[in-house]
Design goal:
Blueprint (H helix, E strand, L loop, with lengths): L1 H42 L5 H16 L2 H11 L9 H26 L3 H9 L4 H31 L11 H12 L2 H33 L6 H6 L2 H4 L7
Helix pairs in contact: 1-4, 1-6, 1-7, 2-4, 3-4, 4-6, 5-6, 6-8, 7-8
Length: 242
């Protein structure tokens, strides 16, 4: 056991570097996925058939193909065609495209779930299509799509483990190095399990705060300050007796 602890202490710098790479892939891949999800999820609802068709093809292609295969194509196949990409860029691009396609369906469903009367009222007020989307539809849909997008972000965090297949020294690669130095598979991958769990829990807390803020703006929940204060009144529904 002492040998394992000593090996863990020696491996801490390597694990720290791996955590940084994992967080970078999660942050930038998640940002790209969000942009694609909002863009494709909105475009797939337009009436112009050619644009809607292209958006649908992109969504189905990246949802229907493996993330690992996409990573291999970007890193190993494209160089055969004369395009050499940086490993980090390949990881961010593959994660963003794959999870952005899943997120597009979340966005589309949330936008479609906004009550038609809300849109009709905006039309009656002579709002342009862009104004209806920005001021009426999207703020309400945003609060509904946050939990599902948050789940996808956690899946994306765990999906960064595949980045080790394209030579990136992420958290999983660091755990493998620890296992080789200790020879103890249970101990090494147990450490990796705990680290991933902590990272996922932190992402969950962040998503919960974003959701609380979005609901408060719609008048459906306490303010972010009240949530952070953990006061009893912040958890009581409006109109409830003290």
């Amino acid at each position: 056991m002492n040998h394992n602890i000593d090996a863990l202490i020696d491996a801490l710098p390597r694990l720290g570097e791996g955590i940084v790479v994992t967080l970078e892939l999660t942050a930038f891949g998640g940002l790209l996925a969000f942009v694609l999800a909002v863009g494709l999820g909105t475009i797939v609802r337009v009436r112009f058939l050619p644009i809607r068709f292209v958006a649908r093809v992109l969504i189905e292609f990246f949802r229907g193909t493996s993330l690992v295969v996409q990573l291999f194509w970007l890193f190993y196949v494209l160089p055969l065609m004369g395009y050499q990409l940086d490993p980090v860029f390949c990881g961010v691009l593959a994660l963003g495209l794959n999870y952005g396609a899943y997120g597009a369906e979340v966005v589309r469903g949330a936008l479609n779930s906004v009550a038609p009367g809300q849109v009709e009222a905006a039309v009656a007020l002579s709002f342009s299509p862009w104004q209806r989307l920005r001021r009426i539809v999207f703020p309400q849909a945003w609060a509904m799509m946050i939990p599902s997008l948050g789940n996808l972000l956690i899946h994306l965090l765990k999906g960064t483990a595949f980045a080790s297949f394209i030579t990136l020294q992420d958290l999983t690669a660091g755990v493998v190095v620890l296992q080789k130095s200790t020879g103890d598979t249970l101990f090494s991958f147990g450490i990796g399990l705990v680290i991933y769990l902590v990272l996922a829990y932190l992402v969950t807390l962040l998503i919960n705060l974003v959701e609380a803020r979005a609901k408060h703006k719609l008048g459906r929940g306490p303010s972010l300050k009240e949530v952070l204060s953990f006061s009893p009144t912040s958890r009581a529904p409006k109109g409830a007796l003290p």
